[in-house]
Write a structure and sequence with these properties.
The complex is a heterodimer.
Chain A lengths: L6 E12 L2 E7 L11 E7 L5 E7 L8 E7 L7 H7 L5 E8 L13 E6 L3 H14 L5 E7 L8 H5 L5 E7 L16 H7 L8 E7 H13 L7 E6 L1
Parallel strand pairs in A: 7-8, 7-10, 8-9, 10-11
Antiparallel strand pairs in A: 1-2, 1-6, 2-5, 3-4, 3-6
Chain B lengths: L23 E2 L20 E5 L5 E5 H5 L7 E5 L4 E12 H4 L9 E6 L4 E5 L9 E6 L2 E2 L9 E3 L12 E7 L28
The chains are: A alpha/beta, B mainly beta.
Protein name (chain B): DMSO/TMAO reductase YedYZ molybdopterin-dependent catalytic subunit
InterPro entries (chain B): OxRdtase_Mopterin-bd_dom, OxRdtase_Mopterin-bd_sf
Organism (chain B): Nonomuraea angiospora
Chain lengths: 237, 199
């Protein structure tokens, strides 16, 4: 049995993703490693001893003692505004993990993969995309990324770079950029039929996003004939 | 001794005595589940208790709805850190369902439509501590919140309150369920912060 201990984590680097989100790269000595899709608990302690904890998905695969989290500001949040606006390189938090053994992709897996992200639900799915690349896996991935408008895109530059075997489709819900192949709108059956894999390929499907999005996307996957046990979901908010 | 995060002040909340350590309050009702939402037609729904002697007690939806019901108002605590105060449910106490069940088993494995399982000591289901509920806040329980019926065990983390509940198997030995085999604590007391294995 492995006991999860709180570890000191020092912020090593900040990457701005959007106007309201940033990726925090922490250095965590003796980090035990993790799988793509897992998450960590973050604990903040104020000078007067007050503490707050939240869970965040890991944004990348294991990379020595470096741990990446991408955090979006919650308008009325207690922890996320600190992580997106206040914390600076050199500051410390405590981390504990990794947690979760279900919503994970393992590099030795051979099944094709459909990733369906709603908004910041892209974070654990991006960890899977990066884990695939890191492992040199040939498994075909298809990523459907639903987001309000182009300004909300995380990892924009990295996802624009060619990555053989990875197809990315953007599904804009409010405003699509000029020349987009699809009008703005919520995810539909056709999106998953065209941007995913047929059920007969028996892909592993990972869906992450806000509850209403996950409900809709998972129901569409079922309607396309995907087996419920191949559809893994993770929701927030 | 915790490490201090420079510049973090936090939001000191007054309701500390009802908030287990590490939890924060929400007003909405977050949903967490591992896969698609199962949809169970009421005419096919049933709830069963199987004893260690393989005696099965079954209720159809109609039989279940004819049982005396209660409307507990309870606080619920999710391992992902949210707590929701004063949630009101309607359903049948496990004490009612266990009235005619003869068993000396100490453990219960709860199982759901969709394949989910979770385990707990049988005594944590009895003596007014747990219910099979079919209404929340005066409305029929939505599928996404576990409808038509779910278990509610408010004194444990909410993953023990299995959605889409289908039955309870009584066992002489403890048998870890879905999250309990995926790194989460076997018992899950929020007041002792039993989140993960080894806590």
């Amino acid at each position: 049995m492995r006991r999860l201990v709180w570890r000191a984590a020092e912020l090593a680097e900040i990457v701005t993703e959007t106007a309201t989100a940033r990726t925090l790269r922490f250095r965590v000595p003796e980090w035990p490693g993790h799988l793509a899709g897992q998450h960590v608990d973050v604990r903040l302690t104020a000078e007067d001893g007050y503490t707050a904890q939240r869970s965040y998905s890991l944004a990348g695969p294991a990379d020595g003692d470096l741990v990446d989290l991408t955090v979006e500001t919650a308008p009325d949040g207690e922890v996320s505004p600190y992580l997106t606006e206040v914390i600076e390189v050199g500051d410390q938090v405590e981390l504990r993990g990794p947690v979760g053994g279900w919503f994970v992709w393992r590099p030795e897996s051979k099944a094709p993969v459909v990733l369906v992200a709603g908004g910041s639900g892209i974070v654990p799915l991006m960890a899977m995309v990066r884990a695939r690349r890191q492992a040199g896996s040939q498994v075909p991935f298809r990523l459907l990324y639903s987001l309000r408008d182009p300004g909300r895109r995380y990892y924009a530059e990295e996802l624009r770079r060619p990555d053989p075997g990875l197809d990315v489709s953007y599904l804009y819900t409010r405003s699509a950029p000029p020349g987009a192949s699809r009008p703005a709108g919520r995810i539909m059956l056709d999106d998953l039929a065209e941007g995913g894999w047929p059920a007969s390929f028996e892909p592993d499907c990972y869906v992450c996003g806000p509850t209403a999005f996950v409900e809709a996307a998972a129901d569409l996957l079922l309607a396309l004939g995907h087996a419920p046990e191949r559809i893994r979901t993770e929701r927030f908010g | 001794m915790n490490i201090i995060s420079r510049g973090f002040r936090g939001r000191h909340r007054p309701d500390g005595d009802r908030l287990p350590p590490g939890q924060y309050l929400v007003d909405d009702f977050p949903v967490l589940s591992a896969g698609p939402t199962p949809r169970v037609p009421l005419e096919r729904w049933e709830f069963a208790i199987d004893t260690e002697a393989e005696q099965t007690h079954r209720w159809s939806w109609q039989e279940f709805m004819a049982l005396p019901s209660e409307t507990p108002t309870v606080d619920i605590h999710c391992v992902t850190k949210w707590t929701k105060l004063d949630t009101t449910w309607e359903g049948v106490s496990l004490d009612v369902l266990f009235e005619d069940v003869e068993s000396a088993a100490e453990y219960a494995l709860v199982y759901s439509y969709g394949g989910y399982t979770t385990n707990l000591p049988l005594e944590d289901l009895l003596d007014g501590k747990a219910w099979i509920v079919h209404r929340f806040d005066g409305e029929d329980l939505e599928p996404r919140h576990g409808g038509p019926a779910r278990l509610i065990v408010p004194h444990l983390y909410f993953w023990k309150s299995a959605k889409w509940v289908r039955g309870i198997r009584l066992l002489n030995e403890d048998w870890p369920g879905f999250w309990e085999t995926a790194g989460y604590h076997n018992y899950g007391d929020p007041w002792r912060e039993q989140r993960y294995e080894g806590d």
